[in-house]
Amino acid sequence: MGNYFMENINHLSRIKLDILVAEALAIEVFYPDEQDKLCYIPRAGMIAREWSPSRFWSQGGPLIEQYKIDLNWAWEEMQEWTASIEPDINIQGSSVLEAAMRALVCLKLAHIIEL
């Protein structure tokens, strides 16, 4: 995985990170009615709900389990959360969910996107 990708994913805004997580999971997201909240429709027939797996445990938590993301505080003397996915993804974030979603994006999209 390129250093360019890893360095730049650490500088994404929360919204851009959430958009990339949606892309990684093939979830369609949108901004309803000129609002600044990113939304998605969980299932057909349901109303739109806010999409923010980097903030909401109800969305990000199951992804941590599904993708077996390992989380550590202050790994290798960094004062941030580190999310790891075998064999070679180690990425930091200011919160558990932010670090985990960055790791997920690296796992699923690093080979196809340039930030």
Which sequence of strands runs across the widest sheet? 3-4-5
Estimate nothing, just give the exact number of structural domains: 1
Mean pLDDT: 87
Low-confidence runs: none
The N- and C-terminal alpha carbons lie at a distance of 13 Å
Order of helices and strands: HHEEHEEEH
- The count of β-strands is 5
CATH-derived architecture:
2-Layer Sandwich
CATH superfamily: Bacillus phage protein-like
Provide the gyration radius in Å: 14 Å
The quaternary organization reads as single chain
Please identify the structural class as seen in this structure.
alpha+beta
CATH topology: Bacillus phage protein
> Number of DSSP helices?
4
Major sheet attributes: 3 strands, antiparallel
Please report which band the strand proportion falls in: under 5%, 5-15%, 15-25%, 25-35%, 35-45% or over 45%.
15-25%
Return the CATH class.
Alpha Beta
Brief summary of the model shown:
The protein has 115 residues and is an alpha+beta fold. Helix content is 37%, strand content 16%.
Explain this structure to me?
This protein has helices spanning 3-9, 14-24, 57-66, 96-109; strands at 39-40, 49-50, 70-73, 81-85, 89-93. With 115 residues, the chain is an alpha+beta fold. The protein has a single domain (3-109), classed as 2-Layer Sandwich (Bacillus phage protein). Helices cover 37% and strands 16% of the residues. A hairpin with a 7-residue loop joins strand 3 (70-73) and strand 4 (81-85). The strands form 2 sheets. Strands 3-4-5 form a 3-stranded antiparallel beta sheet, covered by helices on one side. It has a two-stranded antiparallel ribbon with strand order 1-2.
